[in-house]
Design goal:
- Strands 3-2-1-4-5-6 form a six-stranded parallel beta sheet, with helices on both faces. The chain has a three-stranded mixed beta sheet with strand order 7-8-9.
- With 295 residues, the protein is α/β, with parallel strands linked by helices.
- The termini are far apart.
- It has 14 helices and nine strands.
- It is elongated, with a radius of gyration of 20 Å.
- Helices cover 55% and strands 12% of the residues.
- Helix 9 packs across helix 11, helix 9 crosses helix 12 and helix 9 packs across helix 13.
């Protein structure tokens, strides 16, 4: 059977890996130029068609996939005379794979429905390396029929594909997930930096903590950088600050006075202001060590 026409917007680190995966499975792709020019050119060299606007991407596609950095970026590609809404086909499915604000997602979903198209939020877990091999975790949400229609494409991109609820539920889940993960990463980073000041070897601290109920994958990501000198988690401080900020905004929208998110948001924001925004989250240990005047 022939593969459906895919339009892809947002060929950054993750988006490029997803496009490479889809092309390896012979999906016909339409892409548009963005900041990641080299990635677009690589996709075109593999057979993708490049167009100039999101409207043209939508007009050519049965499925429109977005992998953008912020809700503002998504909205900029959805609305306006050159946006997806102007070109989307009736019956098409548009999927936001980024981490966006649930309120924005629901608003876009209503606009898509007016055009006879469906909108899903499907934020991702795991890394670009997993994406190339089709091993992502995908938290899909939205209309069940639209999700079922998109499921074969999602299954080609992900190892674990979930339907977690109505539109916006995926982004809600992802923001809670990332709030918890980034708060844990910041706490572990501070713990290593505090151990430095106290003269306690980081390796010893890790061995004892990891032997008990505190052990987690996020602890290991931070340890990879703090102790082993490796990259750790491939997630930038800028993106982490954005996601925790979105979580706080979501909490405000729900009239919930979040307590725990503010410390992580503040630490990540200060590290970003210190010129570390492009550094990976696991390097927050370096920020705390410098702040404390230790290692």
């Amino acid at each position: 059977m022939s593969k459906p026409q895919i339009g892809f917007i947002g060929l950054g680190l993750m988006g490029n890996a997803m496009v490479e995966r889809l092309q390896s499975l012979s999906y016909p792709l339409t892409v548009m130029a963005n900041r990641s020019r080299a990635n677009v050119e690589a996709a075109v060299a593999r057979g993708a068609v490049e167009v100039g606007t999101a409207r043209e991407v939508a007009a050519a596609s049965e499925f429109v996939l977005l992998c953008m950095d912020t809700s503002a970026s998504v909205e900029a590609r959805i609305y306006g005379p050159d946006g997806v809404l102007e070109g989307v086909r009736e019956g098409a499915v548009v999927i936001d794979f980024g981490t966006s604000l649930p309120g924005s997602t629901k608003k876009i979903g209503e606009a898509m429905a007016e055009q006879g198209a469906a909108y899903l939020d499907a934020p991702l877990g795991r890394t670009p390396a997993h994406a190339v091999d089709g091993l992502l975790n995908i938290m899909g949400a939205g209309d069940q029929a639209a999700f079922a229609k998109a499921k074969p494409v999602l299954d080609d991109l992900g190892e674990n594909v979930f339907h977690v609820g109505p539109l916006g539920a995926g982004h809600t889940l992802k923001l809670i997930n990332n709030f918890f993960g980034m708060t844990t990463a910041c706490a572990m980073s501070e713990a290593f930096a505090m151990a430095d000041l106290a003269g306690l070897p980081r390796e010893n601290l890790y061995k004892v903590m990891a032997a008990g109920p505190l052990h987690s994958g996020m602890m290991d990501f931070v340890k990879a950088h703090a102790v082993d000198g490796k990259t750790g988690i491939e997630f930038s401080i800028t993106n982490a600050r954005k996601d925790v900020g979105y979580y706080t905004q979501m909490a405000d929208d729900l009239s919930a006075p979040s307590q725990m998110s503010h410390s992580a948001k503040n630490a990540l924001g200060l590290a970003k202001a210190d010129g570390r925004g492009d550094h990976m989250v696991s390097s927050m240990v370096d920020y705390f060590a410098d702040l404390f005047g230790g290692k």
